[in-house]
């Protein structure tokens, strides 16, 4: 039997379920009593047992050899009565996630405060520069007027006290 034939055999068997697998195995000379159904490994519904999701459906297939009750306590899931248990590890993971998010929030707050302080400083510097520029222009303009006709205009100092920024 080559690879292509084996893949076709597997595809047909999987499409037919256990009965199809058993008939395919019998046809190839493999005794069906040696075949273990994939359902024993929790693969019949696309889920993987052992993490508490299908508690009690697959004894023996557990994490690190834990019994079902210990596994349920550590990892959570549904107990045989259908009650949902959170488990120690998921709860601890949620707590750690909350702490990490709090720390990240504090860092974001620090960055926002730094940004605000920077913007305040930049505004103050820009305002001071603009004030100096405006006062220099007013001073120069009044000095030019005063130079053209000293009797018609007030002094530069008195003008700046009235109109300076």
Describe the protein's architecture and organization:
The chain has 165 residues and is mainly alpha-helical. It folds into two domains: 87 residues, no CATH class; 55 residues. Helices cover 62% and strands 2% of the residues. It has four helices and two strands; from the N terminus they run ααββαα. A two-stranded antiparallel ribbon has the order 1-2. Helix 3 packs antiparallel against helix 4. The chain is elongated, with a radius of gyration of 41 Å. About 14% of the residues have low confidence.
Could you state the oligomeric state of the chains shown? single chain
Fraction of residues in β-strands: under 5%
DSSP summary, beta strand count: 2
pLDDT averaged over residues: 79
Helical content, roughly? Answer: 55-70%
Largest sheet: 2 strands, antiparallel
Point out poorly predicted stretches. 34-56
The ordered H/E elements are HHEEHH
Query: What is the gyration radius calculated from CA atoms?
Result: 41 Å
Number of helices: 4
Tell me the span between the first and last alpha carbons.
97 Å
Report strand order across the widest sheet. 1-2
Structural category: mainly alpha
Return the domain count: 2
């Amino acid at each position: 039997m080559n690879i292509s034939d084996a893949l076709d055999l597997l595809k047909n068997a999987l499409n037919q379920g256990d009965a199809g697998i058993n008939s395919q195995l019998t046809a190839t000379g493999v005794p069906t009593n040696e075949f273990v159904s994939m359902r024993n490994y929790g693969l019949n519904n696309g889920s993987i047992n052992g993490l508490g999701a299908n508690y009690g459906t697959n004894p023996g297939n557990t994490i690190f050899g834990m019994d079902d009750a210990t596994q349920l306590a550590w990892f959570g899931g549904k107990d045989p009565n259908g009650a949902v248990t959170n488990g120690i590890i998921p709860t601890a993971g949620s707590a750690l996630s909350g702490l990490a998010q709090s720390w990240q929030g504090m860092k974001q707050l620090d960055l926002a405060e730094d940004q605000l302080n920077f913007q305040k400083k930049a505004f103050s510097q820009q305002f001071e520069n603009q004030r100096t520029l405006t006062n220099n222009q007013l001073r120069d303009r009044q000095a030019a007027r005063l130079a053209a006709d000293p009797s018609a205009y007030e002094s530069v100092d008195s003008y700046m006290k009235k109109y300076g920024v």
